[in-house]
C-alpha cells in the first residue's frame, strides 16, 4: 500500500495571510497528484485557536493564520473537493498523531511487507512538510519516504530548495513528478 500525505493545503497558505505565488502555482499539481494517486490519501490541516498570538509560535510568527473555523483554515476548494477523509488537525509543525496513523497502517499491512512508500506534498516545504517527513522517517525508518518537490512550495524559493537538500541528507527521496 502506498500512502500520499497532503500537508496543509489551506487557503491561508495559498492565497491568504501567508500565501505566496509559489503556493498558488502548485495547486494544479497537487490536484493532479491526488487524482492519479493509487493508494490511501491522508490530509493534514494546520489548526490554531483564537489565542494563537499568545502561543510561542504566534510570538515568533505574529500573523494569525489557520484559526479553526475560518475560511483560511479550510482546505483549498479544489483540494477539499477531492478529500475523502477528515483531515488530521495539527497544532504544531509536525504531527505525532499522523506518524502514529502511519505506523498503525504499516503494522496493518505487515503481512504484505508493510507500507510500500509514503509520499508528501503540500505546504510549506521548509516548515510542515520537512517536519512531517522527518517524523515519518523516524517512526518508520525502513519505509521509503518521498517528497514530490513539484507539489510543494516553501516560504521562499530558497528555503524550499534548502529544505529539499536537508531532507535528501536524511535519506528522504525528493523528486519531481
**What is the distance, rounded to the nearest whole angstrom, between the alpha carbons of the first and last residues?**
19 Å
Taking pLDDT < 50 over at least 5 consecutive residues as the criterion, the unreliable ranges are none
Largest sheet: 6 strands, parallel
Mean pLDDT: 97
Residue share in helices? 25-40%
Instruction: Using the alpha-carbon principal axes, give the shape.
Output: globular
Please state roughly what percent of the residues sit in beta strands, choosing from under 5%, 5-15%, 15-25%, 25-35%, 35-45% or over 45%: 15-25%
Helices, by number, come to: 7
- The tally of strands reads 6
Structural class: alpha/beta
Compact description:
With 177 residues, the chain is α/β, with parallel strands linked by helices.
Give your account of this protein's structure.
- There is one protein chain.
- This protein is of the alpha/beta class and 177 residues long.
- The chain is built from 7 helices and 6 strands; from the N terminus they run βααβααβαβαβαβ.
- The protein has helices at residues 11-14, 21-36, 56-60, 77-80, 96-108, 125-139, 157-169, and strands spanning 2-7, 40-46, 88-90, 117-123, 145-153, 173-175.
- The protein has a 6-stranded parallel beta sheet.
- It is globular.
- The two termini are 19 Å apart.
Chain-wise SSE layout:
Blueprint: E1 2-7, H1 11-14, H2 21-36, E2 40-46, H3 56-60, H4 77-80, E3 88-90, H5 96-108, E4 117-123, H6 125-139, E5 145-153, H7 157-169, E6 173-175
Parallel strand pairs: 1-2, 1-4, 2-3, 4-5, 5-6
Amino acid at each position: 500500500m502506498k500512502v500520499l500525505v497532503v500537508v496543509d493545503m489551506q487557503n491561508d497558505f495559498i492565497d491568504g495571510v501567508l500565501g505566496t505565488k509559489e503556493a498558488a502555482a502548485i495547486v494544479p499539481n497537487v490536484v493532479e497528484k491526488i487524482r492519479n494517486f493509487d493508494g490511501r490519501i491522508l490530509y493534514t490541516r494546520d489548526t490554531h485557536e483564537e489565542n494563537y498570538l499568545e502561543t510561542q509560535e504566534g510570538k515568533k510568527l505574529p500573523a494569525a493564520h489557520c484559526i479553526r473555523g475560518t475560511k483560511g483554515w479550510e482546505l483549498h476548494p479544489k483540494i477539499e473537493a477531492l478529500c475523502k477523509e477528515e483531515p488530521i488537525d495539527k497544532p504544531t509543525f509536525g504531527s505525532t498523531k499522523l506518524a502514529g496513523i502511519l505506523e498503525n497502517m504499516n503494522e496493518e499491512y505487515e503481512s504484505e511487507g508493510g507500507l510500500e512508500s509514503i509520499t508528501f506534498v503540500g505546504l510549506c516545504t521548509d516548515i510542515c512538510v520537512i517536519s512531517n517527513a522527518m517524523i515519518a522517517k523516524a517512526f518508520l525508518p525502513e519505509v521509503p519516504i518521498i517528497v514530490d518537490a513539484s507539489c510543494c512550495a516553501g516560504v521562499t524559493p530558497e528555503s524550499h530548495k534548502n529544505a529539499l537538500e536537508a531532507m535528501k541528507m536524511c535519506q528522504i527521496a525528493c523528486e519531481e513528478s
